[in-house]
Amino acid sequence: MMRIAIAGAAGRMGRNLVLACSDTDGLELTQALDREQSPALGTDSGTLAGIAENKVLISDTLDASAFDILIDFTHPSATTGHLDFCKQNNKRMVIGTTGCDATLEQKIEETGKSIPILYAPNMSVGVNLCLELLKMAAQVLGDTVDIEIIEAHHRNKVDAPSGTALKMGAVIADELGRDLNECAVYGREGQTGVRERGTIGFETIRAGDIVGEHTVLFAAEGERIEITHKASNRMTFAHGAMRACRWMETRQAGVYSMQDVLGIT
Ligand code: NAD
Q1: What is the DSSP secondary-structure string of 11-48?
Q2: Is 75 tagged catalytic?
Q3: Which of 87, 91, 153, 214 is catalytic?
Q4: How far apart are CA 135 and CA 100, in angstroms?
Q5: Is the pLDDT of residue 90 over 90?
Q6: 155: CA distance to ligand 1 center in Å?
Q7: How far apart are CA 229 and CA 32, in angstroms?
């Protein structure tokens, strides 16, 4: 039985992760963590998740003796400390937090030399399948089309564009031999001039309670292809995280992706 600690357990994803963990064979929730000032501290994480009481109270302190793998769906400022803690205590990590900058991504790579880490901005099976479809579309359509990525999320999301949209852009840019840092265009306003073919455009919508929607547009003269994914329930990400935990059980140190977990690389 793998003992699971969930960081961000009082959050939107955290509550779904607690629920998914209680449904997954071979995994046992033993720690539920949230930030120091969280009003949920001391609350039963099962009750908070809308399931039966599980006697795992929300706490602000990780106990290294009480878990084998830490699932982190928090904020980049918290993920940094969790990486240090897991490295020092030789624990595995599943990181779903988005908005990680280049410095933090570098730290994830470095820490992955010591412990197994699964890092994925989107843990749904559908999105990861879409990433493969995008590679195929980019190979065939290449530089003959304009490529735009449009994403929509709920009003409380704090980073933009979404980690998934950026990952989609990175996969396409990689396939086309472009550098996303140089070819990305974020939003447009005013006298923009005509569109340059080699750019990849990002458009962001923040509204209401949208769980997560992504469309990649490949537009040529006379026809266009749209690859769209719509998440209607956060449990799709939570079940993906549980699948990742089971898969991580037997891994050596390294940084892994959801493509590795699903065997679609
Ligand atoms: P949220 O704001 O509802 O929840 C985040 C939780 O983390 C909060 O309860 C907050 O108090 C807690 N937290 C902050 N700092 C902490 C710390 N130092 N220690 C412990 N807990 C801390 O946000 P959310 O919608 O649940 O999303 C959380 C993250 O997961 C975001 O980065 C989001 O983009 C990402 N996300 C990833 C996926 C995926 O599949 N990878 C899917 C959905 C959301």
Answers
A1: SHHHHHHHHHHHTSTTEEEEEEE--TT-TTTTSBHHHH
A2: no
A3: 153
A4: 23
A5: yes
A6: 14
A7: 30
Confidence of residue 265 (pLDDT cuts 50, 70, 90): confident
Give the closest residue (by CA) to ligand 1 atom 4.
Answer: 11
- Quickly count: other Cβ atoms within 10 Å of residue 24's Cβ: 19
* CA 143 to mean position of chain CA atoms: 28
- Residues 111-160 have pLDDT tens digits of 999 999 999 999 999 999 999 999 999 999 989 999 999 999 999 999 99
Distances (CA, A) of 196 to 59, 185, 204, 221, 225: 51, 10, 20, 14, 19
Instruction: For the chain, list the domains and their CATH numbers.
Output: 2-119+234-262 (3.40.50.720), 125-231 (3.30.360.10)
In this prediction, residue 20 carries a pLDDT of 97
User: Is the shortest distance between the CB of 46 and ligand 1 below 6 Å?
Assistant: no
